[in-house]
Specification:
single chain, mainly alpha, about 95% helix, transmembrane, transmembrane helix, membrane
């Protein structure tokens, strides 16, 4: 069980670093808003985070 928690934590940190490297501080803000919204079951905050991420993804293509 602790091994699974460590692996999940490493993957989360790696994903966060990838978002920050590719999309900068706005990507981190969007990722944090999406995460907080999902954990708090608040659709408004998670929606805002999702919209920002989609806008960043659309801008990079």
């Amino acid at each position: 069980m602790p091994l699974i928690a460590i692996v999940v934590a490493v993957l989360a940190i790696a994903f966060e670093q990838l978002v920050q490297w590719k999309y900068g501080p706005m990507g981190i803000i969007a990722f944090v808003a999406l995460s907080i919204g999902i954990k708090a079951k608040n659709t408004t905050i998670s929606g805002i985070g999702a919209v920002i991420l989609v806008m960043l993804l659309a801008q990079s293509n």
